[in-house]
Amino acid sequence: MSLRINATAPDFEAETTQGKIKFHDWIGDGWAILFSHPKDFTPVCTTELGYMAGLKPEFDRRNTKIIGLSVDPVDNHAKWAKDIEETQGHAVTYPMIGDPELKVAKAYDMLPETEGDSSEGRTAADNATVRSVFVIGPDKKIKAMLTYPMSTGRNFDEVLRLLESCQLTAKHQVATPVNWKQGEDVIIVPAVSDEVAKERFPGGWKAPKPYLRIVPQPK
Ligand code: BEZ
User: Fold this and answer.
1) Fewer CB within 10 Å, N- or C-terminus of the chain?
2) d(CA 150, ligand 1 centre) in Å
3) Who's near 14: CB < 8 A, 6+ residues apart?
4) Dihedral angle sign, alpha carbons of residues 47, 50, 52, 57
5) Is the CB of 118 under 6 A from ligand 1?
6) Does the active-site annotation cover 45?
7) Domains in the chain and their CATH numbers?
8) What is the value of pTM for the model shown?
9) Percent of the chain clearing pLDDT 90 (strictly above)
């Protein structure tokens, strides 16, 4: 099944390093980032999960829970977490889902295309999840998705920037322009008429073209 932006994020029950969860209940009233990695005890994944551990306070400040996932069992995650802390300098305090039966991986379409003759079935290599990221809102809808190949470590600062943009859109109906960073000007979305925009943005806006309405970032 392939997922789309604005679809409801599939709910599931799973074992994690912090006990069993029901995903939607675990998300609660805030935002969530679900991200998969291919395999425990691998080099790029070690750097990624360590970096996310360091960024966790930034996600906390944005009312956002983070949760990792791979097809490894939770016992392996727990053992590997010690290596992550030792080598990357950050303890992994967010939960990691163990998905050896590929239930979540399949529901979120995190597996790569199988290689070769499909009659041979999946090999260990293509049973591993690719590097997926799902940004999920309090309404449990998918707000954004990223997919990276196994060979490329993600830029989690960009994931944080993406989250900030999604949260601004949800709160103020503004969009963010190319390479936008926190505090910079934003764009009034086309769905907001000039009439409504006048009420929402009484300070006015710059409009180099009628469809390009630029306002300071609302608080
Ligand atoms: C890694 O994390 O280094 C890795 C994992 C799977 C495939 C390639 C690289």
Assistant:
1) C
2) 5
3) 20, 21, 23, 97, 98, 99, 103, 104
4) negative
5) no
6) yes
7) 13-154 (3.40.30.10), 173-215 (3.30.1020.10)
8) 0.95
9) 92
